[in-house]
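Researcher: Please generate the 3D structure of the following complex. Treat every line as part of one assembly.
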Amino acid sequence: MAAPMLRWGCRGRRWAFARVDGGSCHRRGAPTGSTSNQIRGESSVAQQPLHTAQKTRKGEHKWAAVVGLEIHAQISSNSKLFSGSQVRFSAPPNSLVSFFDASLPGTLPVLNRRCVEAAVMTGLALNCHINKKSLFDRKHYFYADLPAGYQITQQRLPIAVNGSLIYGVCAGKKQSQVIPKTVRIKQIQLEQDSGKSLHDNLRSQTLIDLNRAEGQLRVDANISVHHPGEPLGVRTEVKNLNSIRFLAKAIDYEIQRQINELENGGEILNETRSFHHKLGCTMSMRDKEGKQDYRFMPEPNLPPLVLYDATSLPAGADPQQVINIDQIRETLPELPSVTREKLVQQYGMLLEHSFTLLNEVGLLEFFQNVIKETRAEPKKVTSWVLNTFLGYLKQQNLAVSESPVTPSALAELLDLLDSRTISSSAAKQVFEELWKREGKTPGQIVSEKQLELMQDQGALEQLCHSVMEAHPQVVMDVKNRNPRAINKLIGLVRKATQSRADPVMIKEILEKKLSL
Amino acid sequence: MLGRSLREVSAALKQGQITPTELCQKCLSLIKKTKFLNAYITVSEEVALKQAEESEKRYKNGQSLGDLDGIPIAVKDNFSTSGIETTCASNMLKGYIPPYNATVVQKLLDQGALLMGKTNLDEFAMGSGSTDGVFGPVKNPWSYSKQYREKRKQNPHSENEDSDWLITGGSSGGSAAAVSAFTCYAALGSDTGGSTRNPAAHCGLVGFKPSYGLVSRHGLIPLVNSMDVPGILTRCVDDAAIVLGALAGPDPRDSTTVHEPINKPFMLPSLADVSKLCIGIPKEYLVPELSSEVQSLWSKAADLFESEGAKVIEVSLPHTSYSIVCYHVLCTSEVASNMARFDGLQYGHRCDIDVSTEAMYAATRREGFNDVVRGRILSGNFFLLKENYENYFVKAQKVRRLIANDFVNAFNSGVDVLLTPTTLSEAVPYLEFIKEDNRTRSAQDDIFTQAVNMAVSIPVALSNQGLPIGLQFIGRAFCDQQLLTVAKWFEKQVQFPVIQLQELMDDCSAVLENEKLASVSLKQ
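Model: Done. Output below.
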């Protein structure tokens, strides 16, 4: 436990629905960007126009869903949020537990500077307002993996608030168009993680691991549905979703369940639910946690967390004792939105391509390395990286770092293509050879397999001549102005060259010979 | 030798008049003789003798660690001591042996002090009598003093002597009794709302609550984190200053300690005159319940300062009357939170019930905590409920700010220290004390001490019954040295008499070899 966690509350992501044919079928529409919905807000909600995927029949009610996410992300730090014990993946159970982590009486929390810096950096990256002063609170509940009986978090005054994140949504006929959307971020808070419970139902035992350095991401989704223009519906909370796929499934399921429930005259209870990933459905959790009163109280052992910027930094302050927001801002790497914009401007890339490049770990770097080493046009590189290369990766479920093809090899291949040494179909063949990881360069593969384009005009003319002689009927068709016939001849010549000849060159020779 | 002050015995050690081992053995033997006082929960005899041996080597090699090297001390049983059972006088922690030392304990050991044992208290320091711990009440050594006994003989109504013993006050009553009965030279208490000053006043000792943030709380099993301060109990002000010098300073393990450098050691100058001092007398502290004896001593003390040239003025702390109820809300809320970790899972008591985790929690906590602790947990959780939080906890926090501002305003008006009573009266007999419940007693007994950040109780004189009465000096936060300097001057003027325990101990010669039959300038 006590692994440092960042908690993001994302609010206001919203789906809109149209009921179709009175049945239960629904479609997820495009989430509306920059809505001002507060899922817990009891105040009036500014309604945005609904994006509905299908037309609604007259007299039928549309449903709108409101979804807010609470995202628990583990901070990459060497030691825990409030203790000096290490954070390490897959360490033996309870091997990284300090006296504080075990909640021994008399121990006190000591805030980890690295975690604060990570939180500030996250806040800056997500366009948040960084609170110069934030506070810690205790959240109480009894659970075997919570040894203190409370969790230290930032309920009242968190370290960062009011941010936003731009993300892309696939749209269009083939889902190929990417529309940028914005989700608002309510707050980012530093929170101590609880331990991990392993239930042994056979022996009615629960084993507790207080290391808690696993599971980098955990999401709780708050979901409600309502009719547009009417007050928000009662929400449910689906807890402990640990993958994006399950998150999407759980949300879809829960929305549909709520709609069905309401349409059948039922009501939605404000409750905590869990997602059963094998059955693909959500279920009410029988514990009382949903209605529990956490009895929040200020954490008396941690003074307010005070951050500085260039203007408020006290003169002569010890840099080890203070955290300077401006300094962290300087170390912030280029943010994805900026990178995407640069890609679009620099390479004339489509926005959706820039999203794809950034969504895959290492892909952008791979792309940039290829660009650096090749004379080929950026558009060509983009196409090869996103279609051929990424296609092969996906097919074999590999990460970019596991690719058998290096950026240099692809660059060399694209150079061969660019210089018209090989045809693009030969290039595909070379790529497939490269993927076999036999340690050969594209040049070697081309010469071994004799994939070079035929540059010898005389030889090619000879070949054309032979083909024409062998296929007098096709030649007649050409002469009779059948426009497709010439393509047939070109194909026959190419076949005879084992696809090594440039079709443009063949066409020129044929046209000359046929005196067209 | 045992009757000497820490400073005096430290000098004797340095001069080789006595060795640490001899001193340790004398104290251990006295601990055994006074076992019936119930001052100690655990006597760490082996540890102390081992430490004495090492100290002795250092003295022999001329490598003494300072004033505390070889000095027997005792520690309240709510400070974590590595390898030594730490119970908080509760069933819940019976058998719990911490794997680490509280910072204050470590600092004392680093200075060469000998840990004689862990002292008795009210369960989890919740009380003002040291009567509500699972190991039974602590008896006030003054019950057996010549001074008290002689007065009682004159009283024809006094009945059974044995059942008529007095309480020490609390919750650090074990520490107070240990120092008062000469079994050690200084003891750590903890002080949240008076838990060090109150028993100090009842046992004729100096009881000091340093400024919050000056001394680390790491390892102190908390009552109210935002008010707890490790307290110091000694026989004179100079001794308290020596101990403070060893304890004060920032601790990376306690984020609420302040980082300002501290003048070390805390040497106290002897004030030649007090004419530049301004003493404030809070008018709200003159309450109807105040005994006439205490009131009379209080005003005589004020007269003393005035006659010596100090400016003595009446000040107002207008929010004083709210302090008890404010403290109640804040204290019980933090208690509810702090006690949540005692669930029987990892350490301490666990019940036999295992039908479910929840059932185990409930039974463990019922068996582990006494009524007082459970009552406070219940109230605290009530105040923290979402529906009550604003009305109780937040309001109490606001009131606390107003109360704290009262003190700031008083000090900003030019007052150097405030002079007040420490308790309403002298110590009462146990049978008398338990007629009221813990909550009522705490509310009465801590009336002058609860709202106070930094203060010291100084023994002033004996009551008509021959029992000690203390007065309290309250200082501005982080002006600990100034406060102790004034207290030292006052201590010198009043010449509080040494407790006479001849009837209690055969070994009276050892105890009383340094007895000063001083005149008491503030006689009734």
